[in-house]
Amino acid sequence: YSEIIEQIDRDVKRTHPDMHFFCGDSSFAKSNQESLKNILIIFAKLNAGIRYVQGMNEILAPLFFVFRNDPDDKNANFAEADSFFCFMELLSGFRDNFCQKLDNSAVGIQGTLSKLSQLVAKYDGELQRYLEITTEINPQFYAFRWITLLLTQEFNFADTIHIWDTLLSDPDGPQETLLRICCAMLILVRKRLLAGDFTSNLKLLQNYPPTNISHLLYVANKLH
């Protein structure tokens, strides 16, 4: 496990370097980093089939941030344990995306990307055909990161929390909601995509522009 622990250590140190909560020399930041490391190491030991996959720190960060900032100190003191159990629960719904053996199966990441493609085709066939046939941009070129890291890398931290509020409150679970949000992200920039070529579109989707999150979630909700 030494290699995994080293990888976790490196990734935790790189988690949101712009936020004093996660980074810096303060004892508070260091204590938060230790908590993130503890959670990820224990998760890796309990889930031998997946262990640790780079980027899991990004999924854990919003959970821990919310629990650690609980206005009630009694609750905040248990942020590490609470985050661990929520992280386990959240990943249980997405674990197949992290399992290499399932990558090309219907339940693995390729299956999830295929569902996104079908969703886009259902609500905007013109856009789906233009992206995948005309410009030959397959969902894995941009949506692999969107889906595996639950959009944490596409938006700023506050916007991520806003999106997750919707993602995690869906009684049917977050998977379908995530795909609807991804589909809405494409629809919101459809004009630019339909006017673009392979290079410009890939750049746009890999560096998604700042957007009104409430409107994005509104559009996603309409895709039921």
Automatic annotation (TrEMBL):
<feature type="domain" description="Rab-GAP TBC">
    <location>
        <begin position="1"/>
        <end position="171"/>
    </location>
</feature>
<dbReference type="InterPro" id="IPR000195">
    <property type="entry name" value="Rab-GAP-TBC_dom"/>
</dbReference>
<dbReference type="Pfam" id="PF00566">
    <property type="entry name" value="RabGAP-TBC"/>
</dbReference>
<protein>
    <submittedName>
        <fullName>Os01g0908100 protein</fullName>
    </submittedName>
</protein>
<dbReference type="InterPro" id="IPR035969">
    <property type="entry name" value="Rab-GAP_TBC_sf"/>
</dbReference>
